[in-house]
C-alpha cells in the first residue's frame, strides 16, 4: 500500500513515521525534515490512501475533490469539516446530539453580545466562529478585556471574517483531555487519550498557542471514562451528522474538560491534534495504515491496540512565538537528539539552507521521548531537548510534570 499524508507539520511527520512501519509513505508538501516530502500536490499523486492532516484543506473540500476523482481518503468532506470551520454550527450539533458542553451564545451584533456577557459568571470565554489557527480563544477574568475582544472580533480587526460571529461561553475549570476518535461514518474507535499544554509558559500562563507539549496515556482518563465519552459524545455526534447526510470518515478530535459537573466537550476538531499525535501514535502497536484505510473505506473492524509504554513530547518554538516567530535561526543538535535511545524528533517549522536546518515557523519541532512510564518518557524527551539549540528557542520545562497530582485534584 502507498499512503499520501497531506500537510507539513510535526503531526504529519508523526503520521508518516508511524505509517512507514508497514507501508510506503509520501508527504505533500511535507518539509525538509520529513523524509519523502514532495512538491507534487495531492491531486497529482497516485496513492491507495490519502490522509489529510490540517483543518484548512478539509474545510476547503480537499477530501471531496480527491474522493470525486476516485481516491480513498481519511478525512471528512467540507460538510463534516464544518464542525471545526464554524464553532457556532458545532455548538448546534452538540446541543442537538445532547452532548454536555459549556453554556453559550453566538452573536454578530455587539449590543446583544455585551448584554449576554452580563449574564456570564467570573470567567469569560470569547471565541471566533471561524478558523483562527488555534488562537481565536480568549479566556479571561477581566471583563474589560472580554469586552474589548468582542468589539475587535466583531469589527473584523483581530481575526478578519473568522471573528465576525463571536461565541461567548461560560468559563469552565478543570483538567483537560484530548480523545481522538477514528470514525468510518457509522462507528468510531477511540485512540489512547492525551493531554496537551496550550499556554506558552510554565504553569499554564501566557498566551494561547497551538500546543507546547503533550503526554499519553493520561492517568485520570480511565477506560471507563473513555467509554463514556464515546457513548455520550462521539456516537450521538456521528448520529447527528448522519441525520444531516454527512458521512464522517476521519478523526473526530474531542477537546474535553473534567469539570466539577462531569466531563464536558469544549470543542471538536476534524483532524489529529498537534502535538497529541506525536505522543499517541508512537504508542500504537497495531497497524496505523490498516486502521485508517478501513475507516476511509467505511468498514472499521479491528480496534487500535496500544502499548502500555508512555510518551511525552516537548515542542521547541521559535523566538517570539506565538506573536511573530523569528525565522532563519540555525538549528543544532537534531541528529544528536534522534540518536538518544527512545527519542524521536518530529519536524514542523523548519527549512534547509546551505548552512543546515533553520527555523521557518512558530512551532519548529517536537521532541518525543518514549519509555516504560511517564517519568522515563519525560526524562528522555528533555534529554533530547537539551541537545537541541538555536538562538531564542523557547520550550516549557513542565510538560507532564505532575500528571498524577491532577488526578488527585480532580
Ligand atoms: P478551543 O479551541 O475551543 O479548544 O479552546 C482552546 C482552549 O481554551 C481550550 O483548550 C481551553 O484551555 C480553553 N477553553 C475553551 N473553552 C473554554 C471554556 N468554556 N472554559 C474554560 N476554558 C476554555
Ligand atoms: N493541540 C491542540 C490542537 O491540535 O488543536
Radius of gyration, whole Å: 20 Å
Number of strands: 21
Q: Provide the structure class.
A: alpha+beta
Shape: globular
Tally of alpha and pi helices: 13
Could you estimate the helical fraction of the residues in percent?
25-40%
Bound molecules: adenosine monophosphate, glycine
- CATH superfamily of the largest domain, please? ATP-grasp fold, B domain
Q: If you consult CATH, what is the topology of the largest domain?
A: D-amino Acid Aminotransferase, Chain A, domain 1
Flag low-confidence runs.
405-410
What is the strand arrangement across the widest sheet?
A: 11-14-17-21-18
Query: Per DSSP, what share of the residues sits in E-state strands of 2 or more residues?
Result: 25-35%
Description:
With 410 residues, this protein is an alpha+beta fold. The chain folds into four domains: 2-77, Rossmann fold; 104-170, 2-Layer Sandwich (Dna Ligase, domain 1); 173-296, D-amino Acid Aminotransferase, Chain A, domain 1 (2-Layer Sandwich); 310-400, Alpha-Beta Complex (Glycinamide Ribonucleotide Synthetase, Chain A, domain 4). The protein is 30% helix and 27% strand. It is built from 13 helices and 21 strands. The protein has helices at residues 10-19, 55-59, 62-68, 78-85, 87-97, 110-118, 143-154, 223-243, 277-280, 288-296, 334-338, 374-387, 403-409, and strands at residues 2-7, 24-29, 49-52, 73-74, 104-107, 124-128, 137-140, 166-170, 176-184, 188-190, 195-196, 199-201, 205-208, 213-216, 249-259, 262-269, 310-317, 343-347, 350-353, 356-359, 363-371. The strands form six sheets. A five-stranded antiparallel beta sheet has the order 11-14-17-21-18. Helix 4 (78-85) crosses helix 5 (87-97). The longest helix has 21 residues, at 223-243. The chain binds adenosine monophosphate (AMP) and glycine.
Amino acid at each position: 500500500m502507498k499512503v499520501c499524508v497531506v500537510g507539513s507539520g510535526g503531526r504529519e511527520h508523526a503520521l508518516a513515521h508511524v505509517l512507514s512501519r508497514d507501508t510506503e509513505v509520501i508527504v505533500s508538501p511535507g518539509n525538509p525534515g520529513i523524509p519523502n516530502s514532495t512538491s507534487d500536490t495531492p491531486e497529482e499523486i497516485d496513492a491507495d490512501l490519502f490522509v489529510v492532516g490540517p483543518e484548512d484543506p478539509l474545510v476547503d473540500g480537499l477530501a471531496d475533490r480527491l474522493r470525486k476523482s476516485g481516491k480513498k481518503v481519511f478525512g471528512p468532506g467540507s460538510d463534516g469539516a464544518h464542525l471545526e470551520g464554524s464553532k457556532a454550527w458545532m455548538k448546534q450539533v452538540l446541543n442537538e446530539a445532547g452532548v454536555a458542553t459549556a453554556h453559550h451564545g453566538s452573536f454578530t451584533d455587539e449590543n446583544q453580545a455585551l448584554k449576554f456577557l452580563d449574564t456570564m459568571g467570573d470567567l469569560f470565554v470569547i471565541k471566533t466562529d471561524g478558523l483562527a489557527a488555534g488562537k481565536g480563544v480568549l479566556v479571561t477574568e477581566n471583563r474589560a478585556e472580554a469586552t474589548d475582544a468582542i468589539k475587535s472580533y466583531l469589527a473584523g480587526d483581530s481575526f478578519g471574517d473568522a471573528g465576525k460571529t463571536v461565541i461567548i461561553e461560560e468559563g469552565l475549570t478543570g483538567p483537560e483531555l484530548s480523545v481522538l476518535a477514528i470514525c468510518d461514518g457509522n462507528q468510531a474507535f477511540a485512540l489512547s487519550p492525551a493531554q496537551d499544554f496550550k499556554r506558552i509558559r510554565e504553569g499554564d500562563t501566557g498566551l494561547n498557542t497551538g500546543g507546547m507539549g503533550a503526554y499519553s496515556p493520561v492517568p485520570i482518563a480511565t477506560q471507563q471514562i473513555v467509554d463514556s465519552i464515546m457513548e455520550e459524545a462521539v456516537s450521538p455526534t456521528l448520529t447527528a451528522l448522519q441525520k444531516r447526510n454527512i458521512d464522517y470518515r476521519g478523526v473526530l478530535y474531542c477537546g474535553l474538560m473534567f469539570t466539577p459537573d462531569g466531563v464536558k466537550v469544549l470543542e471538536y476538531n476534524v483532524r489529529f491534534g498537534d502535538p497529541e499525535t506525536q505522543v499517541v501514535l508512537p504508542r500504537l502497536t497495531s497497524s496505523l495504515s490498516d486502521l485508517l484505510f478501513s475507516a476511509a473505506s467505511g468498514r472499521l473492524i479491528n480496534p487500535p491496540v496500544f502499548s502500555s509504554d508512555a510518551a511525552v513530547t516537548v515542542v521547541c518554538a521559535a523566538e517570539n512565538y506565538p506573536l511573530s516567530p523569528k525565522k532563519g535561526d540555525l538549528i543544532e543538535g537534531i541528529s544528536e537528539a534522534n540518536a538518544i535511545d527512545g527519542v524521536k524528533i518530529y519536524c514542523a517549522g523548519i527549512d534547509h539552507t546551505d548552512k543546515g536546518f533553520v527555523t521557518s515557523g512558530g512551532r519548529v519541532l517536537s521532541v518525543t521521548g518514549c519509555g516504560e512510564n511517564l517519568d522515563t518518557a519525560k526524562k528522555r524527551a528533555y534529554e533530547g531537548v537539551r541537545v537541541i539549540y538555536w538562538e531564542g528557542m523557547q520550550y516549557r520545562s513542565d510538560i507532564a510534570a505532575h500528571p498524577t497530582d491532577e488526578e488527585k485534584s480532580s
